[in-house]
Amino acid sequence: MKVVLIPCGATEWHAEARLLGRVELPLTEAGQQACAAWAGTLTPLGLQRILHGPDELSTQTAAVLARRLCVPTRAVDDLAEVHIGLWAGLTESQVKNRYASAHRELGEAPLNVSPPDGESFSAAAQRLRACFRKQLKKNGVDVVGVVVRPLAFAVLRCTLEGRELTDVWEALRAAPAPVVIDSPAIGGAKRGR
Questions:
Q1: pLDDT band with cut points at 50, 70 and 90 for residue 182
Q2: What domains are defined for the chain?
């Protein structure tokens, strides 16, 4: 089975390198154009379904792709973005300045971090992994696309590629396009493109 992890399309905050969290912002024109370009590169993969987070941005991204790829979409509540509470809208440098110990912990042991008024990274990772396992069993298709917001993308990518979650910030920074992962097995998958 192949899984195509697809980041949600760009918003104004992406261009400003702000943490999006669960804040609802529309796709920019550039975000819509990127989604259209992604559809061209995804066509040869033969996606059979696109699952997406329940938020408007993930829904918009999935809809643009689904129209071009002629595949069904389905919102999945547990694919929601990591709730980052008071960090939403901040840049990484602002998080580092305002929450220095939590920022340091993100690089060393991110599962110990719980943003103020947000969801612990440990709980978010467990939720996303459990949801992903369930959806893979339930869907029974050969190629599935999964559209999620940035931190959920990074957590799932690290998990599916068998990387430690200490790599989550690197995975977050390197999420400009869909990633294809072959034969995912939660906790130890083969690396994709």
A1: confident
A2: 2-134+151-182 (3.40.50.1240)
